[in-house]
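Q: Hi! First time doing this. I have a protein sequence and I read that you can turn it into a structure. Is that right? Here it is:
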Amino acid sequence: MKIFENKKILFITIVLCLAAISGFFIIYLSVDEQLKIEKIDEIDYTKLPKDISPEIYYSQQIFEKCDYDMHCVTEFLANLTKENEKPVVMATFENTIALYHEKQVNSRCHSIAHHLGEWVYGYTKNLDESFQYADPLSCGGGLYHGIFSNYFSILNFEDAMAEQVEVKHLCNGVEDDFYSLDMAHCLHGIGHGLLLLYDYDVFAALQRCEEFNTNPEQNSCANGIFMQNVLKNFETDEGQFDQEDILFPCNELKSRFTPTCYIWQGPYILKQRDFEVYSSFRECDKINQEFIIYCYYGIGAELETDAAGKMEIAWRFCQAGEKSEYHKYCFRGMAMKTSMVYLDSGFKFCSLAPEESKEECYDGLGYWIKLRQDSDEKRKIECFKAENTQYFEICMNAKIEGINYL
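A: Yes, that's right. Below is the predicted 3D structure, encoded as structure tokens:
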């Protein structure tokens, strides 16, 4: 009798296991049927589906297998180069970045693009060729930033004399007829790379930004330096910061780059205060009065992802600052982050913003439009999306210099 009961238990167990396994495969196959992709541990480069091009198939495989694991993405691309000719590799690269852009959560897509930019320069070993793939609207221009990160990292590895490395003309091949979004991203990317070249010596790297001719060019370069410093801290708790002084290095700068520094100090302050918004704004309030606006702006930009375009959340975040006169700069930071790729999202955000914040909000949108469009007629088409003529005029007459994100 006991043997029979044991057999019965064993039989039931087997049935349950088979049911679970079959259920798993039903789910598994239904997902694959939708994607028309066969999931495998590695891409088999010798067995391509007949109804899909190699670059589409490879890019879909990379996107599905890696999700937002940036190292996984570059590893698959590196393996791809061993089995395929350059045209297929680069077409796969373009399709991969397009997939991440299409499905993006903006900040995560930007991080992936940084690593893809590093990869593409490592593969082409040519700046101008790498720039051909760097769309400034794709994942927030992260490809430019990664390209220069690798370019300068290689120079650093080769023990190049930092002071002798040419920087001023590196973006000449991008565009030179007006200060465009491409140019801003390129110069910003140089800033990322300079900090690597100078082993995270912010002060030494900033001196090289002064070699550029105009204030917008210099500020874009400095912006990249400060962003790279913060990224390093977010990833490794390192970078040029002082655990005993939450405002360093900005409070030690004696230059026109101090405002830009405080924009990026905002995210660092949030991290140091465990992303507790109230106490983070308290730290901003301790800054010299002329620079407080930049800290509020930087915190607003960093919190944009958490607000996710919902004005009630954005309102709660920005009003956490004790000094109400600076709330509008927090809203501006959110607006510029959310409209960095999709302007329509920015116009929707500004239309819902508190009345006292709208002017800063629409000025921020106008900044992006000026970088994107090279004529007043093209700018008018975009700025007409503003809710009334007052904000249309603000959008059209936006300042390039001032509080910006690049």
